[in-house]
Amino acid sequence: MNINGINKKNEIILMDKHGVKRVTKLVKDGSKYGKRRLGKGWKDFCKANDVLKIGQPFMLELIWEDSVPVLKFCSKVEVETIICD
């Protein structure tokens, strides 16, 4: 998240497929490397977008509203299974 300037923020907005916005905390996750994770509200965001299983792929778009980062739900992603012989 460092590359997009999000590392300096403590909150982010999650926008679901219906345009509903939820303010969510960016929680520091380990002091080394400055990793962040999404806090309370992430599960509700996933439910609102019908992302119900861990590991189910989907796409988010990072947009900015003034100086506030917004992760906007774009779509679910189809994953093809490739079998190697």
UniProtKB/TrEMBL annotation:
One of its GO terms (cellular component) is nucleus. Pfam families: B3. Its main location: nucleus. SUPFAM superfamilies: DNA-binding pseudobarrel domain. It is found in: Nucleus. GO terms for molecular function: DNA binding. Keywords: DNA-binding, Nucleus, Transcription, Transcription regulation. CDD domains: B3_DNA. This is TF-B3 domain-containing protein. The lineage of its organism: Eukaryota, Viridiplantae, Streptophyta, Embryophyta, Tracheophyta.
